[in-house]
Design goal:
Blueprint lengths: L1 E8 L3 H10 L3 E2 L6 E4 L3 E12 L5 E11 L2 H15 L5
Antiparallel strand pairs: 1-5, 2-3, 3-4, 4-5
């Protein structure tokens, strides 16, 4: 097994879970850590905290772990997950 941890900021934790499901995983747990399992990979939402940049500007930071049977699968899943988390500013 190979794994990689990432942190996503400013994205609702429920959306991050939904993205795992959209990629074909089933949710296994209902409390942190949220675990999502697919045939060749799994994802976990490990934690969520609030980060303050100023007294007014605060965002959430969510730690996510990806695990896969091999590096090719891990790279593919992370790439597809990152597409779902892309936010375009304007």
């Amino acid at each position: 097994m190979v794994e990689k941890d990432l942190e996503f900021r400013g994205i609702n934790i429920n959306h991050l879970g939904m993205y795992f499901q959209e990629l074909g995983a089933n949710q296994v747990t209902d409390t942190l850590p949220f675990i999502f399992e697919a045939e060749e990979w799994s994802g976990q939402i490990l934690s969520e905290e609030e980060i303050s940049f100023t007294d007014i500007f605060k965002v959430n930071a969510v730690k996510v772990r990806f695990e896969a049977k091999d590096m090719d699968t891990l790279v593919r899943v992370i790439k597809n997950y990152r597409y779902k988390t892309t936010r375009i500013g304007g």
